[in-house]
Amino acid sequence: MFSLHFVMRKRMLLAVSYLVIVTAAFSQENLRQNQIKENLRKDTRVRQFEIDPVRNTPSFLSFKTTSVISQNEANATLRTTFASRTAIDDWKQTSLTKHATGITIQKFQQYYRGIKVEHGQYMASAVSGRLQSLNGAYYEIASSFTTKPGISEATAVQKAIAFVKPQKMAWQAVEEMMKKQPQHAEALRMQMEQYKPKGELVIVKDFIGKSNQLRLAYKFNIYAAEPLYRANVYVDAKDGRILLQDMIIKHADGIVQTRYAGQRTVKTKQVTAGLLGLTDPANSFLPYAWTGNSLRPPIINSSFFILHDETRGNGVMTFDMNAVGGLPLSIPALYSQATSFTDPDNNWGDGDALTYNDHKRGVDVNGPGAGGVGEAENDDIAFDAHWGAEMVYDYWKIIHGRLSFDNNNSAIKSFVHYGPAYDNAFWNGEVMTYGDGSGDDNPALVGFKPLTSLDVCGHEIGHGVCEFTANLVYEKESGAMNEGFSDIWAACVEHYVLSHVDPTLPYDVWGIGEQIDLRAGRALRRMDNPNAEGNPDTYGGMFWSNPDCDPTLVNDYCGVHNNSGVLNHWFYQLVAGNDLSQMNDIGQTFRVKGIGFADAEKIAYLTELRLSPTATFAEARMISIQAAVELFGLCSPQHQSTTNAWHAVGVGNAFVSECAPSITFAAASSATSESTGANGCGSQKTYTVFIGKPVDNGLAASVSITAAGTAVNGSDYVLQSSTVSWSATEKGLKPITLLINGDNYIEGDETVVLSFTAPAGFSAGISSHTLTIADDDYAPQIGTTPVTLLSENFDAGVMPAGWNAAKGIAPNATNVWMVGDASNFGNGNAAFISVLGTGVPAYESATPTDVVLSTNKLDARTVSGVTVSFTFAVGGERDVPVGLNPDLNGDGAVTADEIVQLPNSGRPFDYGILVYSFDGVQYFDCSDPLLLLPQKQSKTVALPAILNGKEFYLGFRWLNDANAAFIPAPAFVVDDIVVKASPKSIQTTAGRFAETSIDKNTEAWQYSVEDGKVVGKIKSNNTELGCTRMNISQGGNGTSSFVYGTRSDKTFEVASATTAKKVSYEVTMFFTNEELAAWGADLSNLKVLRTTSPTLTLLNNKNSQILTPVISNNNGKYYSVTVTADGFGKFYLYKPTGAARLSANGESIATLGVYPNPAVFSLQVNVDAVSKGSLVMTMFDINGKQVYNKSTAVENGRFNTRIDVSYLPAGTYLLQVKNAENTWTQRVVVQH
User: Fold this and answer.
1) pLDDT along the chain (1232 residues), means of 10
2) Does residue 970 have a cis bond before it (omega within 30 degrees)?
């Protein structure tokens, strides 16, 4: 396999020392890490944040109670917080857990170039859909980090197995069983394949080498049968070193359970066996047998009961290992080692045959329940395991709403009698396993009674909960908390049983394993006084184990059981507290007010849900404090006690109040646009401003919201809620809802100023909130020719005004943007990356750079379809595709020419890319990487549609890592930058319409609701038009003749909802050049006809108006026709035939009246408002033949006459009445 780095070092002899590379990579990381911290400091939404001292990245940040970030924005917030790089960094949600209190926890996994970053996890906590905090572990990885392994998976797995040194692997044990049981060969073969180690490529920290460096690694689940071992083993994918072993089988050494919980009622299952018996499903190779008998005869023709509870999740089941141990019990194929416990009458302790006495058959030399080899015959301890598992399931479901250990209702399986006199109990990643204990068989009194006591059940299944929540790495501080949380759940389960099941049980909730300890009055660990059993109660105090050792089984993986005392004692202090001031081991005085189990266990569970796998005690402190804030409120008693309990164990300071009772807006200002996302009248959108009562101070509060500003309530917006109230027990944010009305007015930005006066007992925090409603209406650019937004050729030889050459994520003082002579690369003056002070288009490849050359702000608010074209030349570096030899001519040397000819499938290391930004701060990639094109190129890029109708910055971004480059010159040269966009088109399609509400003295552009094209513009004159529609009722590029002359095919129609008797408005209609071409070049004699008449033959002074327009030729691109009208209806461009036939400029139109129609003998003809002169009346038949003609002199006013039609044949005729100014026509029917 070749890579550019290999070629550069081996073939091109560009030697770069490892130290320089690492230093440069660290430099690149530090730049980004510093930028991340600076971003958090400037983020006004952040209440506090903590930086992990080892990773130098944020481990926790909480948001102010006044911030409003949606839970749905968690992923985007992570990306912003950590300045995620396109195609490099990614966060994927892996789980969503809802706490019983309603708090939701989203867990996200970090990925680098598609590879999982092990233990790189972040949790997002939300209350009522609003993001409260983020916490976890983020690993900053330089863009130069290689993701190509140096050794194969086969080599790596052998390294992992050699590290474990097993006598027999689990899959080998299954293979042996295949030979003994050929009838089950297929099922066993599937299990064997399942448990063969398979590698997953991940990125993980070097835990063993202590360098804390991130390494590419293979992760294997190594499962050994002899000796029993199961862990995730991480092998360095470069050199085969072991980086970490994360134990899956977690031993609770000495944690034991009692068999003296008294007689309990448990759920069982009834089974019936026939004459041939019935196969035990726990053991597919044996039939059910009576377990109350040493000979274990098969059950024939009988009904019986087994320890199988089907009422809880997918089952609580308990099985008998019959003193067999050392095999991986979670493999279904090996269940032949176990059998079901059976009883004939479901009274497992009534003294009848085959019941209690026979369930307890072992030698009892040391008294009841003493432990030892004889316990293998005593099945009563299985009842403790079964009942204990039921109680643990109930605890998690009832108290926390969690369904089984994985929150997916998985079955809880317990295996009892593991190994002869085995002094242990453990969770192996899938099931529970209990030993019988060695009891007094061990003369040193270091053994235990049977390990099935309730607190051991709670502890071990608690490891299962941890695996499916925080999954804390089982070593050092994270491992100590893994054990500590299990102890906490052991105490909580015992407390639950005492509170909800039986208060008479002899449990000491603060003693772990006190009932299985052979030493009278002793326990394996004590939570109230860890020192009593040799465990620390203070971080770094007495009995503390060094967590920075090399973790091994001998040192308990750097004290995971021992140091759990710190978390144990924190929980004890949180629950019980202390009445008097005390001093811990490191000399700090503390006092804690206990909050009881109910609140403390909620805080503990929410904390475990959110811890990252490698969390420390300091991180647990931060997360638990935030959990208390989210559950009970800022400065609540629970918040104070959680903080003080950590102080008691030497982690962090005591509580310092940061709260005062106040009412406050969430922010002093916000902004939104008028755009509602909908078209038409009445379009609105909901906008919410939040106001809060951050602290529960026991007082009710109510505030009245007043609204002011330049926007008008009821017109520009509607304030829906003017009063906000909190009860005495309420706190938090509440919404103030406004409805923003959409419009098409060009009116400028407007403001809504909300304010309140604080009620008695409260101070005012932010007492005023200014909402800016940004006017997103602009006079459109209209036409068909693209509009140029930017044209820059750098001929002036200087950086253009308004441009910024130092934007980006990690600008440095070495590789910078400048303007100068780039003629060597096909350009004259151009902008290019250059080493500071040299003026040459080349870059220093050993200095990591990420810098943007940004244009001034470009205005695309009135256009769409933005493109950019530019010329460029670029060098850089990319990885060589796998299997490809870059020495193309085989001469033993790789040249720049050969590199340029390589396929572009390799991952880019040094490259340029096109970017955009809305704020000039955060930039987004919008092109493919540009690299290894050292000769002048031309490129056109269609910019993202999100830029349509927006103002934005365009940028050219240069990135390089810290390794030597193939082509350092040019770095990135750009020139001849032209940004164009498409203007608005004029609507030409019939049936398309625009609709908007128009207030008095306002102007609104009319865009068709279907496609946004320009229909027209309406400006009201002292009239509120209300909802007004303007549509194209007829389209076309031609003209049509009618009785009064010629009119345009394209017809506009305006309708309004106004009830005003008199209206006046200005309407502008738009025509393309093609739509007016039929009129010729001279448009000066055109009029506009407005009419409500259903046809153009029925015009009169009541339904029609002739208007003189202002016609503008807009640079030859299109025409606008503007008139002032006092009514609605259809609008035509109109050209009279000869002299004007109708009165113009709004004068009355004379009207023609003809009746009766149809006529038999005569017609009465009336002409109103006719001027003095000669009036000619003519009738034509349907063939156009003149059948009547008469000329009459008339005076001003009304003209009346009668025409004899009795002599005309029956039929249809056209009557034409004409004077010097007007022509009227009327269809007449004659009947006889």
Assistant:
1) 29 29 43 76 84 85 82 87 87 86 89 94 88 91 90 94 88 78 70 84 86 89 79 93 80 38 77 78 80 75 83 90 59 63 74 48 51 74 92 94 92 88 82 83 66 92 94 93 96 95 90 82 90 95 92 87 96 94 93 96 96 93 93 89 97 85 87 78 88 82 95 91 90 90 83 93 89 85 92 94 74 81 82 89 84 94 93 82 55 56 65 90 87 89 90 93 69 95 94 90 90 93 90 95 86 93 94 94 91 82 87 91 95 72 42 82 79 86 90 79 92 87 82 87
2) yes
Burial call 295-308: b when 16+ CB within 10 Å, e when fewer: ebeebeeeebbbbb
Q: What's phi and psi for 647, nearest 5 deg?
A: -60, -35
* Cα–Cα distance, 816 to 805 (Å, whole number): 7
Domain count, the chain: 6
Q: Is 9 helix (H, G, I), strand (E, B) or coil?
A: helix
Show the domain range for 218. 153-247
CA distance 1220 to 1217: 11
Look at residue 73 and give its three-state secondary structure. helix
Tokens encoding 313: 């999740």
The reply to whether 91 and 68 lie within a common domain is yes
Of 160, 354, 123, the closest CA to residue 240 belongs to 160
Structure tokens at 406: 């994985």
Q: Which of 571, 559, 534 is nearest to 474 (CA)?
A: 559
Contact partners, residue 725, CB within 8 Å, separation at least 6? 700, 701, 702, 703
Contact 827, 969 (CB under 8 A): no
Beta pairing, strands 662-665 & 763-764 = parallel
Which pLDDT tens digit goes with each residue over 640-692?
A: 999 999 999 999 999 987 777 889 998 888 888 887 777 778 788 899 999 98
Nearest to 1126 by CA among 1033, 1060, 1068: 1060
CATH of the domain at 840: 2.60.120.200
Judgement on whether residues 29 and 122 belong to the same structural domain of the protein: yes
Tokens of 306: 């087994």
Do 269 and 306 form a contact (C-beta atoms < 8 A)? yes
Q: Which residue has the tokens 């007492």?
A: 767
Query: Mind telling me the catalytic residues?
Result: 460, 561
Nearest Cα to Cα of residue 557 among 654, 482, 650: 482
Residues 972 and 1101 in one domain: no
pLDDT in tens, 705-724: 999 999 999 888 999 989 99
576 in any annotated domain: no
Among 94, 101, 976, smallest CA distance to 471 is for 94
Q: 1158: cis peptide before it, omega within 30°?
A: yes
Spatial CA neighbour of 765 closest among 65, 50, 5: 65
Residues 813 and 749 in one domain: no
Are the C-beta atoms of 313 and 305 separated by less than 8 Å? no
Question: Residue 1082 and residue 539: Cα distance in Å, rounded?
Answer: 95
Q: What one-character-per-residue DSSP string does 1086-1128 give?
A: -EEEEE--SSTTS--TTTEEEE--EEEE-TTSEEEEEEEESS-
Residue 738's CATH number: 2.60.40.2030
Rounded Cα distance between 665 and 657, Å, is: 21
Q: Do 1030 and 1130 fall within a single domain?
A: yes
| C-beta of residue 229 within 8 angstroms of C-beta of residue 249 | yes
Torsion on CA atoms 674, 677, 679, 684, rounded to nearest 10: -60
Q: Bridge-partner residues for 917, per DSSP?
A: 953
State which amino acid sits at residue 1053.
E
> Does 261 map to a domain?
no
773-794 per-residue burial string, b: 16 or more CB within 10 A, e: under 16: beebbeebebbeebbebeebeb
Contact assessment for residue 402 and residue 465, using Cβ atoms and an 8 Å cutoff: yes
Task: Identify which of 365, 514, 375, 516 has the alpha carbon closest to the alpha carbon of residue 448.
Answer: 516
